[in-house]
Amino acid sequence: MEAAAELALRLRAAANGRLARCEPLALVAAPLLALLVARLVHAAASAVADRGLVAIAIAAVKLLPGVSGYIAAEKKKVVDKMQSGGTSSKNNRRAELPTIGLGEEVIKDLETLKAKDVDWQGKCSGTVYIAGSESEGHFELINKAYSMFSHTNPLHQDVFKSVAHMEAEVVAMTAALLGSKEKSSGGQICGNMTSGGTESILLAVKTSRDYMRSKKGITKPEMIIAESAHSAYDKAAEYFNIKVRRVPVNKEFLADVKGFKRCINGNTIMMVGSAPGFPHGLIDPIEELGELASRYDICLHVDLCLGGFVLPFACKLGYPIPPFDFSVKGVTSISSDVHKYGLAPKGTSVVLYRNHEIRKHQFVAVTEWTGGLYISPTIAGSRPGGLIAGAWAAMMSLGLNGYLDSTSRIMEVSKKIQRGIDEIPGLFVIGKPDMTVVAFGSDVVDIFEVNDIMSSKGWHLNALQRPNSLHICVTLQHTTVYGEFLKDLQDSVNTVKANPGPISGGMAPIYGAAGKMPDRGTVKELLVEFMDSSC
């Protein structure tokens, strides 16, 4: 010990002797300069990690004289192509109120405008989930329910008690489908209705952020998502200043649990699992993600926007569905759309939380407003009570037996479509679909050219990337036309095989080029330009 102490004193004396020969200003400036250099290196490393060397190099090239102008001109050409005649429609829009009101004659104008919509019945992937004509049956019922309460607003609970009552029942009934009655759920499942899946996701992310800030003091939040997770999570990240850790899917196109684990750090607030994911209709390993969330004490949101009103009934019908709801330990929130397979009017979704302690962080309370004390549960203040009434009417009118019947029909047709696609030479189904979304690609033909031919036949499918593929989200609208779909798909593949190359007016070249472009920033700019010129 004495020898060690003596050595330390000698080292100290030597260091002081050397430093004594330095200028005092240099002694102060040196560590500050080192700190500045370290910060610059860290910032550069973070930029490379977030954007990649290729993107940074391309951004530098754009600064060269003439390059930015050329790129802008090329972007305009692509945007004009994507518009496909939308400019003339935009130029015909009314920009001022009519001098004299139209009165009831406005209904004729509405009918004229509506007649310009495409023939969507049975031809769209997802989009409209209710079967039949919009003027009869279930359509007519929810329209009537909406009209009865179109003047109501749940913001005024003291006035429209009926709407508050219906919202509470819609939330409770949805929660019961998703594990609230299971002992493992904890018995405190709670939530609210929202305007759709995106708002439900936004609220779940915002709530998780604020909950983890309160619980762990996290001020630079990060969330981990699979690359198959819905784009609403990126929207939430931009809105709420959260860093996204995006993990590639595994060979089965599912969330890679090991990849998620590698991304967890002290700033992680949540992970996201989908049941199923929008692109391929596959259910992520929710149980494994739940174990991970529990081990690291972080939030886990399960996206059941598509599956919330299918999977519970598919389980009852005997389909092999892996665990996905609040019965799974570690799940802290769930989003489930009523306006999809719940067969409710558009604009109705539910966000649920495992307990009230978490949900409290969803609310915004204002105490210093001259307009009085204010509290709001969701993003919107005023909300349409008619939509709540429509959702309540849909669920009550269908009941357990109605949902079992509709689920049985769409699951059966989904399997028939899956088998039919497998039998078309040149096509393959992506993964093993768990539900009603069937994604397919091709190693033989350009799948986007196939999509263009299908579009010319009146079909509206979803174009996907990584890999290039299409999907159809099967609804009750398809239960009587799936044979026609498969025939048209077979014919379209044959047409592309016989005559490869883009058709006039087709979008295949744009989709294909966008998927191959290494500069994702330019692709993003194209999307922004397109949206800005469309609305």
TrEMBL record:
Which co-factor is required? Answer: pyridoxal 5'-phosphate
Which Gene Ontology cellular component annotation is one that this UniProt entry carries? Answer: endoplasmic reticulum membrane
- GO biological process terms held by the UniProt record: carboxylic acid metabolic process; sphingolipid catabolic process
Q: Could you name the domain of life of the organism this protein comes from? A: Eukaryota
| Pfam families xrefs | Pyridoxal_deC (PF00282)
Q: Which UniProt keywords apply?
A: Endoplasmic reticulum, Lipid metabolism, Lyase, Membrane, Pyridoxal phosphate, Signal-anchor, Sphingolipid metabolism, Transmembrane, Transmembrane helix
Top enzyme class: lyase
Gene3D superfamilies attached here? 6.10.140.2150, Aspartate Aminotransferase, domain 1, Type I PLP-dependent aspartate aminotransferase-like (Major domain)
User: According to its UniProt record, in which pathway does this protein act?
Assistant: Sphingolipid metabolism; Lipid metabolism; sphingolipid metabolism
Q: How does it sit in the membrane?
A: Single-pass type III membrane protein
Q: Care to name a GO molecular-function term for this sequence?
A: pyridoxal phosphate binding
- Indicate where this protein resides in the cell: Endoplasmic reticulum membrane
Q: What is its EC number?
A: 4.1.2.27
Residue positions, PTM N6-(pyridoxal phosphate)lysine: K340
Q: Which PANTHER family match?
A: PTHR42735, SPHINGOSINE-1-PHOSPHATE LYASE 1
Q: Which family does the record assign?
A: Belongs to the group II decarboxylase family. Sphingosine-1-phosphate lyase subfamily.
**This protein's name:** Sphingosine-1-phosphate lyase
Task: Say which species the protein is native to.
Answer: Panicum virgatum
User: What lineage does the source organism belong to?
Assistant: Eukaryota, Viridiplantae, Streptophyta, Embryophyta, Tracheophyta
